Each structure stands twice: as structure tokens, then as C-alpha cells.
Amino acid sequence: MSVKNCEKLEKNQVALTVEVDAAAFDAAIEKAYRKVRHQINVPGFRKGKAPRKMIENLYGVEIFYDEAINIAMPDAYVAAVSEEKLEPVGYPEVELLSVSKDGFSFKATVYVYPEVTLGQYKGLSAPKGEVKVTEEDIQERLNQLAERNTRMLGVDRPVENGDVANIDFEGFLDNKPFDGGKGENFDLEIGSGSFEEQLAGMAAGEEKDIDITFPEDYHADLAGKAVVFHVKVNAVKRKEVPALDDEFAKDVSEFDTLEELKKDIEAKIAADRQNAVDHAFEEALMEQVAEGIQCDVPQPMVDEQARRFVENLKMQIQQQGIPYEQYLKLAGLDDESVMAQAQTPALRQVRLDLALEALAKAEGVEVSDEEIEAEYERAAGQYGMKAEDLKKYIDQGTIKNQLVNTKAVKVVVDSAIATKFEEKAPEGEESAEGEEKPKKRTTKKAAEPAEGEEKPKKRASKKAAEPTEGEEKPKKRTTKKAAPKDAEAKEGEEAPKKTTRTRKPKAEKAEGEEAPKKTTRKKKTEKPEE
Question: Does pLDDT of 513 surpass 80?
Fold first, then answer.
């Protein structure tokens, strides 16, 4: 193999002209012969037993060329990339230039990892919210605790508002039962906004027909339809909500007094909100850093990020028990449209990843082995497992990349200036001179998570872009996709460093995604799947 030319093109593309000599080509032809000889009929020989020369004399020396090129081209391409010290992104587009008994030549055009020029990343400013915890916030959390510790007591009286009625029911549309309209021993809270108000006054053992008209935006088969539910009350129960006192604090926590519990709740709410505020501040800053870089982003990197968004969406949908195809149908989408929607946020995420890597390089960010081990220990403790077990699921490169990104973000945050959120002036408000006041620009706060919910994890570790098309056998003087062959990163793992792809491509599904929000870094190591 020899590289005859390496030409840099626009938009981070490189064109390699590669020649494979006669010896290497003949070795590939021999491999091709052994691979396909069982498929060739030669009079006087059993299948697979005919000598190579006999087959070539009968069918022509070119009979094995296509398969031999398929065998030799990936290795030649990988060797050429290594010789020129390139970092390919995705698979190359290949054009077969010439082929004969003396060898063959081809031209491979491939995207390479882009050069990134950083803009300003120190001394940036962004709005940062103030953390406040009110008495109402604390009381709401206490009420939630009380609700979770509420007991249900059976009562011997008719149903009243606030009770829970245990019922059997069956729905009828035009005097015929309909799918999903039947249930037994179902606990229904009276006053929750359903048809339960019509149960008021019924006692255990009583039965009743209830008329209901479904709303117009209900399930298509029942939208706007009038149905009849036959309901039987099995039991009536009332809630016994515990009093919010010191005894309650002892029952639900490690504290002896309600006052101590309230202080703990206040501290936890404040910590949660502070984390959300810090995260929003970091994201606002890193968005400026990402927007400030100068580089041509290769499209394969954007496509790969969009596909990762799709996979995340699929997992989220499936975890909710909804088939992905059904979700697409209900949303009026298809794979192509969802993929198109993912392109813009995918580009933002790729620019952010590129900015982080360039920033870490510019600042000389390094991570020691001791820091990596400490992160393994921290994450293992968080998930209740041993560090050695966690290492089986999360490789060292992923941990190192997360720590590098965390340090890179800290460089930006530590030098940044936090400003206050500006309140928008009421529309139409006029100044003392009678002129309408200009509206103030506002920066929207990131939505705070519901109390007790886990906040989304940040991430910015980049993955090498994967090929976008499956392997095809190159034929004479035609343009095909080359088939580099190399082991791909395990599914679910992030590649700590961009590497040359050398494996044969897999056929990929057409996919799309409703894109998640961009992230900057991971504060927590993701829990490995068992």
C-alpha cells in the first residue's frame, strides 16, 4: 500500500489516493478464491475443489477482483489513515480508480476531526437566580410527608367527599361493553375530579348506573361518546392524616421534634434549588463558549449525536411501557421527521463537546490516577456497590473524560460574573414623559425540578461519530462506501477519545428523536445496567 496523494478539502474533508500493489492484491485474490470457490461450478470438479487457475481460465482472471478489492481495501484505507495521522469521522466515500493484475487504486474522501479555535471563555457573564425557601415550601413538603403516611380506615356509612370508595365497575357503549371499561376492587378517591361525585351517598354493597360523556380530546374510539358505567361499592374508607407534631417527626425521620425536621427540609430544598441554579448558570456560560468557537462541524458528528438522542428517547418511551412505534403514531411523527427535529440540538451538543475538549487542551487540564480512583469510589458508594464491580460497567476512559470536562467547566465558572435576572416591564407601561418604556430583555430561569425528584445529569463526554451507511462491495469504476473494520465501542459506553474507525459497517436503522436538552458535564456517574 502506498499513499499517492493526501489533499485537504473544505469543511474538514480529506481526499486520499491509495494504491495497492500486485503482491497485496494477489494475496487478496487468493483469499477471495478460498471464500467463494464453493459457489462456482467447474465441469469435472466437485464444488470447491477446482483450482484457482482453472476457474480463472474458464471465467476470466477478473472473476475474483470484486471480492479481493473488498478484502484488501479496508486494510489499505486504515494503513493510509495511520500513515497520514488522520482522525476520521464516520466512513469514507470511496471511488475505485483502476484495477488490473498489477493491483488497484482508489480515492477515499472522508471527514476528519475538526480544528477548533476558541473564542472568549474567561470573564463571561450570565444571569444567576437567587435561592429562596419560604414557609409555604416547607409546609408543602410536610404535607407530602403526611400524605405518604396517611392511613386508610374502613367506615360504616355512605360515601362522602374526601373518602376512598373501593368499587367494581363496567362501562357500556350503546348497551355493549367496551375495551378497557371494566375493573374490580378499584380504589377511587371522592373529589379527585372524575365521575366519583355521582357515588356520593352510596353505601357498601349498593350498585348504581352512572351516565358519563367522555371529552372530545379523549381516546379516539370514545371521544365525545356518552356511556353508562355500572358501579358497585365494595367498601368505604376514610383517610386518617397524621397530625404535624413532634410525634410525627419521630415517626418519619431521625429527628425528635417537628422544628428539627422543618430545618432539615429547608436545608434540603435549598440544596436542591442551589444545584439547579448552579447548573443553569453553568449551561448559560457554556452555551456562550460553544457559540464562540470557530470550526466547521462535520455532518457525520451531528448525525451520530442525533442518533444517540433517538436511542435515549426510545429507552425513555419504552420505560414508560409505550412501544416506540405507537408513540410515533400518536405524535403524528415518523423516524425521518424525528431525526430532522434532532439535528439542531445535536449540532449544539457537538459544538459544546468540541468546545470542552479545546478548552481542556488550552488550559492543560489533567486528571491523575488517584482522582479517577476517588471518582470510582464516590460513584460506587452512591449506587451501593463496590468500586471494582463498577469498573466492570464503566471504563476508566469514561471516568477520566467526565473529570476532565468537570475541570474545564470550572475554569469558565470560576472566572465568570453572575448577574441578576431582570424583570420584564409590564407591557404598555409608560414613563413619566408619557413615552412607552422599552421592554427589558429577560433571561429565562431553568425550570427547577419538582421537590424530591432527581435532577437531570450533565454530560459532555464526546463519542466518536459512527458510520452512517452499511457496507457495499465496490465494483469497477463506481462510487461506493468503503468498509473500514474495527471494533466499535460497546453500546451504552462513551468513547473517551476519538479514534480511527476500522470495522466493517453495520446496516443502520432510520431513526429520529425528539431531542433532549443539551448538557455540559456529568456531575454523577451514570448507574450501569445490570
Answer: no
Q: How far is residue 153's CA from residue 470's CA, in Å, rounded to a whole number? A: 64
Across the chain, what does the average pLDDT equal? 81
Average pLDDT over residues 158-179: 88
Torsional class of 434: left (φ above 0), alpha (ψ -120 to 50), beta (otherwise) = left
Q: Which helix (H) or strand (E) holds 127?
A: strand 125-127
Q: What is the phi-psi region of residue 393: left when phi exceeds 0, alpha when psi lies from -120 to 50, beta otherwise?
A: alpha
Write a three-state SS string for 364-375. Answer: CCCCCHHHHHHH
How far is CA 485 from its chain centroid? 26
Show Cβ contacts of residue 124 under 8 Å, excluding neighbours closer than 6 positions. Answer: 285, 288, 289, 412, 415, 416, 417
In total, the chain counts a number of residues equal to: 530
Task: Of 169, 182, 174, give the one whose Cα is nearest residue 210.
Answer: 169
H/E element, 103: strand 103-112
Residue 287, C-alpha cell as written in the block = 452555551
Res. 68: pLDDT tops 90: yes
- Residue entry with cell 425550570: 447
91-100, 264-273, 411-420, 440-449, range with the lowest pLDDT = 440-449
Report the alpha-carbon distance of residue 337 to residue 395 in Å, rounded: 34
How many other CB atoms are there within 10 angstroms of residue 245's CB atom? 10
What is the DSSP code (8-state) at residue 496? S
Can you tell me which residue has the cell 457495499? 472
Question: 43 Cβ partners below 8 Å, 6+ apart?
Answer: none
First to last CA, the chain: 45
Q: Note the pLDDT tens digit of each residue in 282-308.
A: 999 999 999 999 999 999 999 999 999
SS3 category, 75: helix
240 bridge partner residues? 151
CA distances from 424 to 417, 443, 495 (A): 21, 10, 44
CB 488 within 8 A of CB 465: no
Helix, strand, or coil (residue 234): strand
Give Cβ neighbours of residue 94 (< 8 Å, ≥ 6 apart).
73, 77, 106, 107, 108, 109, 474, 479, 480, 481, 482
Phi and psi at 245, nearest 5°, equal -140, -170
The residue among 480 and 413 whose pLDDT is bigger is 413
Q: What is the Cα–Cα distance from 163 to 187, expressed in whole angstroms? A: 10
Helix (H, G, I), strand (E, B) or coil at 520: coil
pLDDT of residue 195: 67
C-alpha cell at 438: 422599552
The single-letter DSSP state of residue 140 is H
* DSSP 3-state of 523: coil
Alpha helix segments (H runs only) across 168-245: none
